Amino acid sequence: MDPLSLSLPLTISGRSPFDGVRIRWGGLGAIALGVGLLCTAEPGGILFGAVLLGLGLATWIMSGFGSTWWYEIPIPRRYIVGAGAITGMFVVIFFVGGVMLAARLVQMFADNR
Description:
Blueprint: H1 20-38, H2 43-62, H3 75-111
Helix pairs in contact: 1-2, 1-3, 2-3
């Protein structure tokens, strides 16, 4: 199969959560959520924090920190890399979106006279 003829899954406008850059950010997002949950010091937070921390690290390790092309990753590892990339990207998107929303609300209330 020609690698150039294959497109990455879930590609929208030429971007996919499974390209190298988004796999790196997805791993970072999963790690950040895991650390945040670990800091709650609650049993559930510690359990899910450890799982998400491991998922983020596994995403980076199994994808060679995003340098391995998606179709070169063995199929069983794709499930882990894909879960980490999707989970982490949702965290990054919601965090950035939340910061932008908060900044917009502050701006809106500051301009209100």
